[in-house]
Specification:
nine-stranded antiparallel β-sheet, 11 strands, Urate Oxidase, elongated, 270 residues, alpha+beta, 39% strand, two-stranded antiparallel sheet, homotetramer, 6 helices
């Protein structure tokens, strides 16, 4: 067997920052709070490649995932812990100075409708990126995580409301909160969802009976917000609840009901 | 050169209904009303294949497009006429009993804002499908077209408005009108756009100054409509204006501001 | 509470064929062969609406899903059975003459690599559409299902191979097998996957060690196939295994490595 | 008219880095080398917002685009020049310390097939981002551009080829070259396309007659390359041709024909 990957590349002096696989779909089992969660993520995993190595052994990246997932002696109490184990397993199989793994999936939470108190399932897109750096010979590895959670809410235009005796335009908006930090500082997904939901003019629900719909309509009209206001709300709530150990970023897209385009806003502390 | 395509296939007795290429991007020049329109469509072109032929000569499908587009002696006054010429050219190069060509593109129209009367450009997704059947030895070919035009407007919920003293929820909606018929009955894109825009609670604009925004907000609140109402409006206007020589279909998607999911409605006469 | 939905619509004489919700994400628990499967589908559910009713009560569609999903006395041994129960529940809450439910999700199967015999997880996009018609006063309802399963394989061009001494071009291809019929005739997803995988020049795997890669490369070169050949293979295998009680359709898209566009082919028996 | 945007926001001390509109479609006319090019881009335009201002006047962002586009006294000889004028116009209408505009569109180039010398149209996705910073009272503004051009080619696996007597797997790959710098250093799109096309195992063509197909198959087998090799080729060619005044980055995605996932590689100098 010829290991073509280990040859020297023709182009000299060019290291590559990220080499790996993406759009890989697999199945995770997370055991958390005495419940088994099954997650079907889309995965990206990559390493850096020095300038004197032609190619990565891609199957070792995939194998690191498969072996951690199918090792029944391991218990993963969180997605971040599972990712940390995969990058640790990978460092035994392939040399790298920096590697990352990204998992994208929908997280479904059971909630209650606001007035009729009926059970409803709400889905939130989540992205978990875990990065591991192995710097130098004796250095300890360093692991950090970047978590993004999105939710759909709405914006009620305060400008139109102020100029039309309370009448205004309203639209669906998508908010995303991203935090980055060390394992011990990473909040639970549910806490990030709570911050998003209270930052909109109103959150959205999959099931709404008429009494719930009326409640939301009233709440929305009492809480007119620009896209910019929602972004600042997310940032202010997140800083207050998560403190300064985390990088915090927020983005909101308002899918304008009177325009064909979207309005957006981004901010945060890096 | 071995023509592998002309061999008999291993699997016996299986004709194929559509064989061709898609996701092909090209450049069209349409000369209409003394103006040159450049269109960059995504193209699908396909033929049927009898059960005793292994494969289509795909390059002949592509060549039929390229040759018609680059023949400067031809003038195409409409997308449908250009498609008709491509399918005619193709019938000289490849046998088929039925072929179709689909062109998807954005059509940009200059409009005026409703109150401030400023110039604004509005884009509309359009799909043109042209089908040609060659039935039998002496039979004339038959050509028909299916045109879909989409526009973004909005819906203002009449149910929430009736139960909340005029307060309601509002959201972006996407309407699509599809007509199918012979060349002489196909309406202009602009007429289809007009029908869509007057069917919503209000149309949308890319540019809106405050006076325009106020005008739209008033109009929306005077015209509350379900997704179902918008669909029926499109169908009623189209039947009235285009008569009964055309198949007419309509679909509306309302991207609910109080839900994470969309509401939709479809109807028409086939 | 005013029930605006029950009013007569302004546009007269226009029934709507499909009115409902889509892009709804939820969580299903399927109990099959003594295992719990968690599925996170994207859902569409719709009914028809007669010409004298203004709007559907959309929350009743959502509630039919939520109530069946959260009723712990029910055991769903298949996605089709769950859909059947939802449409039955819906017929108690909202009148309709025809309703359908579509579930789209990824189905993950554990397999073994072809030579190294390592565990690998492979994901297959699946669409399950269940339709229920309630025709007339005393008539029994009628239920049928339409199932689509997709898999990624590859095509190895036999034309280029015949003209280049065995050298050729190779590309990823996506095959989709669709079957439609009554509940008792619907095959298991795994059987549909098997048919797809043996119809390509070779199937694909998420994990491949070098011995597996070599095995696939040899197999691919021994099995050159056009997109059209793969479509006919799927149809021939499906007809042979599933008989004539099912409608069978197949579609293959070959993402050409020497072109920017894709080649596709469709066939079947309706 | 109340200018709600100019109020102070409720959340204190939070500036926003980017506030604007996106997914706006419009029509550009570029006059270059004595030819009129019509481009239908998707546009994003944004400014920063200080912590004491509630919202941006979004219509002024849109108006800056519309007014530059419809001013017939202006001649735009490049997309970058048009973007520069829009950001200059915007600085007269809305205060900002940093603004950007992103245009995404397909650029269609007429080429010749490699052997049969037939005319063929090839489309390349392009992204042009122009940023303008206004720093301080007397300071001159600073403008820079970031241009990304993508092309579809292919990769021929050298590892499988070395271990299977010349047989291998082949797949479509997408390469993207990004450059960033001042206006005078920005290369023409065509030069960036040339670099991409010579970096793959082979480029792709929309039209290929059999003689062309054979030529490509031979070329591909003489030029086996990993995804990593293609990335380094792009970087090496771009550095050689464009020198060190530009930031240069490259990314390649190889859509593996033996896997369901993609392989990717990124590198460059910032």
């Amino acid at each position: 067997m010829k290991e073509t990957q280990d040859l020297h590349p023709e182009a000299k002096g060019i290291q590559l920052h990220e080499v790996g696989v993406r759009n890989l779909k697999t199945l995770l089992l997370i055991h958390r709070q005495e419940t088994d969660f099954k997650i079907l993520p889309t995965v990206e995993i990559a390493i850096d490649l020095p300038d004197n190595i032609k190619g990565a052994h891609m199957s070792r990246l995939v194998e690191s995932i498969t072996d951690v997932l199918t090792d029944e002696s391991r218990k993963h109490s969180s997605v971040e812990m599972m990712s940390t184990q995969v990058l640790s397993e990978l460092s035994k199989r392939h040399s790298y100075s920096r590697a990352h793994m990204i998992l994208q999936f929908d997280f479904v939470v059971e909630q209650r409708t606001p007035k009729s108190n009926k059970r409803t399932f709400e889905a939130y897109p989540i992205v978990v990126k875990t990065t591991r750096t192995n710097r130098g010979f004796n250095a300890e590895e360093k692991i950090f995580h970047e978590i993004s959670v999105s939710s759909k809410g709405n914006t009620v235009c305060p400008h139109a409301m102020a100029n039309n005796d309370g009448k205004t335009h309203i639209q669906r908006a998508i908010g995303t909160l991203t935090v980055k930090g060390m394992n011990e500082d990473i909040p639970e997904f549910e806490k990030m969802i709570d911050i998003l939901e209270k930052s909109f003019s109103s959150p959205t629900f999959t099931l709404l009976k008429s009494s719930d719909e009326n409640f939301l309509v009233q709440r929305m009209h009492n809480n007119p917000l620009f896209c910019e206001d929602v972004t600042r709300n997310i940032l202010a709530f997140a800083r207050e609840e998560f403190g300064k150990n985390l990088e915090i970023r927020a983005e909101v897209e308002s899918q304008e009901s009177i325009h064909k385009h979207d309005v957006f806003s981004r901010g945060g502390w890096v």
